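Hi support team,

I submitted a single chain yesterday and got back a structure, but I'm not sure I'm reading the C-alpha cell output correctly. Could someone confirm the output below corresponds to the sequence I sent? I've pasted both exactly as they appear in my results page.

Thanks,
R.
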Amino acid sequence: MLEIRQLRYVQAVAEELHFGRAAARLHIAQPALSRQIQQIEQQTGAALFVRTQRKVELTAAGALMLERSRSILRELEQLEQDVRRAGKGELGRLTIGFIHSSTYGLLPRTLQRFRDLYPDVELELREMSIADQATALARDHIDVGLTRPARYAPGIETLSIMEEDFVVAVPAYHPLASSASTPLARLSNEPFILFPRASSPLFNASILRMCETAGFTPQAIQTATQVHTVVGLVSAGMGVAIVPVTAKNMQVSGVAFLRIQEDPPPVSVVLAWRTSRETPSLRAFRAIAFKVGEEFMATQARTRRGGDVC
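Hi R., thanks for writing in. Yes, this is the structure output for that exact sequence:
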C-alpha cells in the first residue's frame, strides 16, 4: 500500500517536472528522490514519468497519480483540521431536548449565541416533556435536555442554569389585575387552573405547597400541562393560575401577572446530560446556556426590586 510520503514525492516531481527542484522542495537529496520514484513505479507496476536528459514528462498513469494524490492529500489536510475543530467543539452534531416554556426566552437566545460561535455544529431540536426527556437521556436518544429537576437514571448529571420566580396570572378584568403584587391568601376563594400531578409533578407540588403555606387549598376547576395552555385559559376567564415568570414573555392578551408577596421558592431550569456522552460541543452548549441563564436571572432580580411584574 502506498504511503502518504510517497504521494508527496510523486506530487512534487509531477508539479515541478524536474527532479532537482522537486528534491529541493522536499528537502531531500535528488538521488534519494529518484530511488523513491523508481520504488513507487515498481510497487504500482506502471511508469509515472518519461525521463530524458532534457526534460521530465508525465505518463497517463502519472497524470492519474497526480490527480488522485492531490485529492487524497487535500482530504487528509481537511481531516486534520476537522479533527482539531471537533476537539474544540466546533464540529459535530448535538441533539437537544427542550421543554416548551424555554422557547419564550432561554432557548432562542442560547441557540443564537451557539450558532454564532459554532456554525458548523449541526443541531437537532426536540420538544419533549420533562418525563420524556428523562427517558430519552437514559436511552441515548438525546445528548442534552433543557428541562426541570426530576428523577434521572444513574449516569445522568444535571446543572441548574436558571431559577424562575412564580407569579400569579389573572384575567385582565380581574379586581387584582391593576395590582403589582398580591399575597396568596387573597386567592383562597378563586377558581384555579393547575398543572396536573401526573404529568407536571414539580409544578403541581410546588404550587400546592405554597398555597397550603398561605393557609388554603386551591380550588382546581381545570388542569393543563403546558404553561402556554394554562395562560390561555386564564385569558379566557376560566380562573387564575400560578405560573413561572417566563409566561410573561408569551405576550398573551387579556392576562395580568402579579408578583407573589410571600416570595415562594423559585423553580429551576436545568441542563441534563449523560456523562458517558459528553463531547466538546456539549460542553460549549452548556457553558453558553449557563451564561444566558445568569443574564435572565439578573433581569428577573432587577424586575423584582422594581416591583414591575404586570
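A quick pointer for reading it: The CA atoms of residues 193 and 222 lie 5 Å apart. Let us know if anything else looks off.

Best,
Support desk
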